[in-house]
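Cross-posted from the bioinformatics board.
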Amino acid sequence: MMKKLRQEFADTMLEVGPLDQRLVVLVGDISHGILQPFAKECPDRYYNIGICEPTIVNMAAGLNKVGLIPVVHTIAPFITERAYEQIKLDFGYQQLDLNLVSIGGAFDYAQLGCSHHCYADVSLLCHFKRSAVTIPGSPVEFNVLFKHLYNKHLINYFRLVEQPHEVEFAPNDVHFGKAIKVRDGRDATIVVVGTQLRNARSAADALAAKGIEVEILYYHTIKPFDEEALRASAAKTKNVICVEELSAHDGVFNLCMRACLGMSDLKLRQMAITDFVYGYGSYEELCERVGLSPQHIVDQVSSVVG
Amino acid sequence: MVYNKDLRIKIAEMVHRSHEGHIPSSFSIVDIIEVLYREVLRYRPQEPKWEDRDFFILSKGHGCGAFYAVLHKFGFLTDEDIAKYSTAEGRLGGHPDTTKVPGAEASTGSLGHGFPTALGVALGLRIKRKDNRVFALLGDGECHEGTVWESAHVAANRRLGNLCAIVDWNGSAAQLMPTDDLPSKWRAFGWDAFEVDGHDVVALSKLLKSLSFSADGTPKAIIAHTVKGKGVSFVEGHGKWHHRIPTDEEMTAIVEELS
C-alpha cells in the first residue's frame, strides 16, 4: 500500500522546514495531526488558522511581503474556488509567491457529496502567467516537485490525490514539466492525470488482450504542459484519448488540442467531468458513474482504433 | 475646524485634471493618514522597503487620492507623479498598485483584502522577531466584507499586539445596514477599541502615540468618526459626489472654500 499523499505532504514539510527558516505552513483545520512533527520541529512556523479560507490565503500574502514562503493547505474547493479572488489579486496582481497544497480534488471525497467536489481548480490556477500547476499522484512526485518549485517565486498549485495511483516512480523519473511514458504502444495514446493512471493501466491490459497496444503518457505537471511528449506519441499512434478528473470545459484535453495544432489525421477524444457528480459512494463507484472506469476507457479507445 | 486644506485641494485638483477619483472618500481619511506619516510611522521615503519601517496599508483603496497627497508631502512621490495621476504615463491610478507606487504596501481596490494582508504582515513580523508596527485603514462600508471579521477573529486569537486597524466611520455602511455599532463589534471580537474624531489631528496624534504595541498582546482598533467629503460643504455627505468629477466651476468653488 503506497503512502498517502497527505502524509507525504507532512513528511516533506518536516524535511524542508528545518532547512529553510522562511517556510511557514498555514492550514484550515485539516491534516493537523499529521503535521505535528513539523509543528514541533518548527514551532513558530505552523498555524492551524481556522475555517476562513479566503483570509488564510490573504494572510499568506502578508507573510510573503516580509520575506517568508507560505504554504497553505486545505480542501481543494475551499482553497481554490472559494479563495480565488485572493489568489488572483493578492498573489497574481501583486506578484507574490504562494504554495497551495490541496486535498480532495475532483470527487475524491466521494462520500461527502458535491459540496466537497472540485473540477475547475486546476484550470483556475493555470490562468496566471507565474503559476506552476501539478497533480502529484504518488508520494515521490510531490516530494520532488515541491522541493523543485516551492522557492522559485511562483504561484504553485499542488493538487494531492486522495488515493495514490500505486505506480512506483523513482525520484529520477520525476522532472517538473515532463510527462512520464508509463507504457509503450502503437495504436493509441492515453493522456492521463492523477489517480486515473490506475484505470488507464487496467484498460491498457484489457486492450492488449484484444490486440490493441496503447501508449500511456502520465502528466504530473499540467502547467507547463509537456507538448513535445504528446506530439511525438500522437505522431506515432494518430489517436489520443485524454482521461482526466477535471472539467470537460477547460481541462487537460484543451492542452492536448493546443499541443497537437497543425498535426493532421488525428483522432482526439476527451473523457472528463461534464457536470456535478451527484450522489454518494466509493471513489470507484463515482468513477463508474461519471464514465471514468477502465471499461469506459476500453470502449473509448476501441471506438477510435476501430 | 478643517485641517490639511492644502492636501484637500491637491486631491481635488488630481481628480479634476484626470477625470478619475473619489474625492469624498479621500477627504474622509486625509487627516488620519497625514497624522500617521507626520507623527507616528517610522519610514524612509527614499528607501520605501527599509526593513525596520512600520507598515501602513490602505485597505479602502478608493481613498487613494488622500494617500498619494500624503506620500507626496512626505517625500515618497514627486510632483511629476502627482501631475501624471491616472494617466497612461503615470504610476498612480484609481487604486494603489504596490508594484508601482513607492510606499504602497499592498495593491488594494477590491474591499476586504488589505486588512487580511496586514494581518499576515503582522504575523510574519512576529515570526521574524521584528518590532515593526502594522496599521491598516478600513472603510466602514468595507466592514460589510466577511474577510474583515475573519481577520479580526484571527488577530485577536493570535494576540497580534503589533496590529492596529483604523476604521473610517463616515456612515457609508449605515446607509445599507443601519445596525452599525462598530466599537462594540470590534470589542466583541476581542480588540481594544478607541473612538476619536477622525478630523481632529491633535486628538488623533495623542491617541495614536499613546498606544502600546507588542508582539504578544491585544490588537487595537481605532474607530474614527469622520465626515465623507469633510471640508467642502457641498461635497460632504453621501450621494452623487462619491465618484463625481467636479466641473470647472465646482473646482473653483472647492478651492474657494478651502482657501
